[in-house]
Amino acid sequence: MKRLLAFASTLAVPALLAAQSAHPASHAPSGGMTLPYKHAPRPTTANITAADLMTRLYIFADDSMMGREAGTIGNVKGTDYIAAEVKRLGLLPAGDNGTYFQTIPLKTRQIDPASALSVNGTPLAFGSEWSASGNTALSIAGAPVVFGGMIGDSVSMISPDSTAGKIVIFGVATGASPRLVRNIGRFAPGAAAVAALVPDQMLGFARRASSFVDDPSFAPRGASLPTVLIAQSAAPKLFTAPLASLKAGATGNTVAVDLKFKIDPVPFPARNVVAVLRGSDPKLAGEYVAIGAHNDHIGMNNHPVDTDSLRIFNHIVRPGGAENAGERGTPEQLARFDTAWQSYKAANPAHAMRVDSISNGADDDGSGSVSVLEIAEKLASLKGAARPKRSVIFVWHVGEEKGLLGSAYFTDHPTVPRDSIVAQLNMDMVGRGAATDVVGITKDGQVMRGGPNYLQLVGSRRLSTELGDLIEQVNTKDKHGFAFDYSMDANGHPMNIYCRSDHYEYARYGIPITFFTTGGHSDYHQVTDEPQYIDYDHMARVANLVEDVALHVANLDHRIVVDQPKPDPRGTCRQ
User: Fold this and answer.
1) 367 and 292 within one domain
2) Is the pTM of this model over 0.70?
3) Is there a contact between 275 and 410 (Cβ–Cβ < 8 Å)?
4) Radius of gyration over alpha carbons of the chain, in Å?
5) 120 and 233 in one domain?
6) H helices present in 120-234, as ranges
7) What is the CATH number of the domain that holds 52?
8) Whole-angstrom Cα distance, residue 484 to residue 541?
C-alpha cells in the first residue's frame, strides 16, 4: 500500500493527519457525480427506500465509527447503533443474558519481542532481519537449513516428501503479494520449521497482531506451523551461494529458533448483534430464517492519504482495490492517472486536499448492515396474515474481516437451536455494481463489470437446489428485474468467494445459504470506501429482493429441502 502511493506525489502526507475534511458535492474522482460528503439524517419509514438507506449508511459509516474494527471503540459505537435501532423496531433480544449482544472472546496474538533467531550462533535482528507469523510457539536448538526453491515455481521446488525434520527456506520473488507466504508449510508438510526469504519491507506484515477466539470449543480450521520470514538482505548469512544460484535441496548454515507469542484481550468488546422477529404461525415460529451481514471493517491506519487522487489512481491501476494491492502501475497507466488527475482538478478548481486515514467500510459491509436493518424495519411493520409465519433471526456478525470469527462463533454457539435455522441469507457489499466497477473476474480470468440490474449470487444451490430455484422465481414473478451473475460461484474459482464471507459458517453445518453481493470495486478495503460513492437506488432494490425471498422462505409449508452433500463443519472450505 505504501509503495503504491509513491507514484502520485499528491498521495502521501504526514502521518499525524488522520481525518477527512468535508467538501461539497462535485464531480466524482472516477467519473460521474458524487453525493455530499455529509448528509443530515432523517426519520426512516416502514418501506425499504434509498432515502432510508442513505440516512442509515451515513451514520454507520461515519468517521466517528473509526472504521468499526472488531475489538475497538468504533465497533462498539456501530453495534450500539444497530442494537438501539432493533430495540426501537420492537425486535426481541436474542443475544447473551436477555440482551441484543453476543460477545465473542476475542484476543490478539503477536510475536513476543523476546523471541530470537540465530545463524551459526549469531543473532539476527528482530523486525529488520526477521519476523514470523502463526499461532504456535516454536523452539529449535539448532538445525541446518535447506533451500526449498521459489514459491510459485513448482518445477524448482523441493519434493514435499524430502522435507521431513528439516528447516526449509523458500524464496519469494520481489513484488510478490504477502498472501503467497501464507501457509507455505503445505509445501513442506513434514518440516521441523518453514521460512521464507522475502523483500525486506514485507516483514512489517508479519509483525501485526492477529486476532483469534479464545474458546475451547472454537476450533480454527487450517491451523499450521508458524512461518518465519527472513529479509532477503540477510540471505548471505544463511547460504554461502547467492540466492539466485541456489537449487532446491541446497543446504545452508545452522539456525536456532526460539519463537514466542504474546496474547492480550482486545480493549473493547467484540459483539454480534442478534435480534428476532417472532413468526405469526405457532406451529412454525420455532423455525428461523436467518438474515445477516457483518458489522465490522478494517479500522484506521497510520498513513493518511489524499483520497481523491488515491481514488483516481486505484480506479486506473488497482480496479479491485486491495485485491490488486501489489500493482504499481505501468507507464501507460501512470500517464492515464496524471491526465485524469489534472482533468479532475481542472473541473474542481476549489479542490482542497482531502486527507483520510479511516477505512469507513461504506460498502464493506456498511451496505449489508444497513440493508439488514431496513429489512428488519419492513418485516416488523407487517401485521396479521402479512407477517412471516416462521420467525426471522437477524445477526450482524463481528470479526468477518479477521476470518469470519463472529459468524463461526455464532454457529458454534447459536442462541437458537442450530437445526431450527432453515436458511441463511447473507449480504456483504451490496452498494455498488456499476458498469464502471470491475466487480470480479471469471474463473478463466476475464474481467467482469456491473450494470443497472447487476447482482452476484454465490452458493444458492450448493446445499439446496430448491433455494436457488426459489430466488430465481421470486426475482421473475415479483418483477425485481435483476440479472443474476453466478460467475464467482464456479467450482475452483481462484478468488474462493464462497469461503470468504459469513454465509459459509452456516453452510458448514448444512444450513442452505445464499450470498448476495454487487461485487468488488477499486474502493475495496481502501479509505475511499465512503457513503458518497454508494448507489442507494440499486442497494434498495437488492434489499427489497432479499426481504421478498425471506418472506417466501418463511411462509413455505415445508423447510427448504437440502439435497446436496453437507461439508465437514471442521474441514477447510474449498470452493
Assistant:
1) yes
2) yes
3) no
4) 25
5) yes
6) 203-207
7) 3.40.630.10
8) 13
